[in-house]
Amino acid sequence: MSDDVKKVCAREALKWIKSGTVIGLGGGSTISYLIQYIKEDADLRVKVVTPSVKTRLLCIEQGLEVLYTSAVDQISVAFDGCDEVDESLNALKSGGGIHTKEKLIASMAEDYILLVDETKVVNRLTFKHPVVLEILEDSLAYVQKKVAALGGKPVIRVSGAKDGFTVTENGNLLLDVYFEQVEDIASLESELQQIRGVVDTSLFVQVATKALVAGEGGVRLIAS
Ligand code: 5RP
Predict the structure, then answer these.
(1) Could you tell me the residue range of the domain that residue 173 belongs to?
(2) Ligand 1, atom 13, residue with closest C-alpha
(3) Active-site residue, from 12, 102, 134, 189
(4) What averages of pLDDT result for each successive group of 10 residues across the chain (224 residues)?
(5) Where in this chain does the entry annotate a coiled-coil region (predicted)?
(6) Angstrom distance (rounded) from CA 199 to CA 36
(7) Between the CA of residue 118 and those of 30, 47, 121, 172, 200, what are the distances in Å?
(8) Which residues contact 190 (CB under 8 A, 6 or more apart)?
(9) Residues with CB under 6 A from ligand 1
(10) Which of 84, 106, 188, 215 is a plausible cystine mate for 92, CB 3.0–4.6 Å?
(11) Does residue 102 have an active-site annotation?
(12) Quick check: 96 and 202 in contact, CB under 8 A?
């Protein structure tokens, strides 16, 4: 997504925010633009919860109040990016490895709105990106066996450090699971969730309530 398209998308997102509310902000560059626009709007006063360290630091830098998510039980609207979303609002996130907290914030929000461009929208999820599982370290071999039985190819995510595994803020491991073909997205999500040791998956089945899709001709809305 070009920076100009991201900005158009972020500007449109601003229209969905009511002053005086708690909002959720995920990660990514479109969210960074949205933070800037919130800051610039003198009439808009909001408090923020976020799963992303980068977003938290950016909000603080811009003078936005960031609350502990643990002290909040309701969010009016949350915005996030994703890697792929379909026309039924099923989405796949893969990059940041913070999907467990992202999904929590999404569930707490009355509205969970994905900010994307047309290149990320598909009729049906293609799974060219892996499904990411956050897993307890002790469950590694067990979860690898279970996902292989479901047709997935699990690859443990490594950090830059030699032989180092990526460890999440929650102290867990990340397993990138590649699927060639997925017949039933909802069943796959449910089966993955049921594997003991899996904390959460980056497959967001009917979690988003809307997507703002930016393209050359402007922004269109996909709504549930
Ligand atoms: C990764 C994500 C990110 O939120 C998403 O990739 C951000 O995209 P962009 O920088 O284009 O706004 O979900 O899984």
Answers:
(1) 131-196
(2) 82
(3) 102
(4) 88 97 96 97 96 97 97 97 96 92 97 96 95 98 98 93 86 97 96 98 98 93 94
(5) none
(6) 33
(7) 14, 30, 5, 33, 27
(8) none
(9) 1, 26-30, 80-83, 93-96
(10) 84
(11) yes
(12) no
CA–CA distance, 74 with 21 (Å, rounded to integer) = 10
> Which atom number of ligand 1 is nearest to the Cα of residue 117?
11
Residue 124 resides in a domain: no
ipTM comes to 0.94
**Is residue 125 in a domain?**
no
**At 98, which CATH number?**
3.40.50.1360
CA dist 178 → 69, 151, 154 (Å): 31, 9, 6
DSSP character string of 45-85: --EEE-S-HHHHHHHHHTT-EE--GGG---EEEEEE--SEE
Residue 126 lies in a domain: no
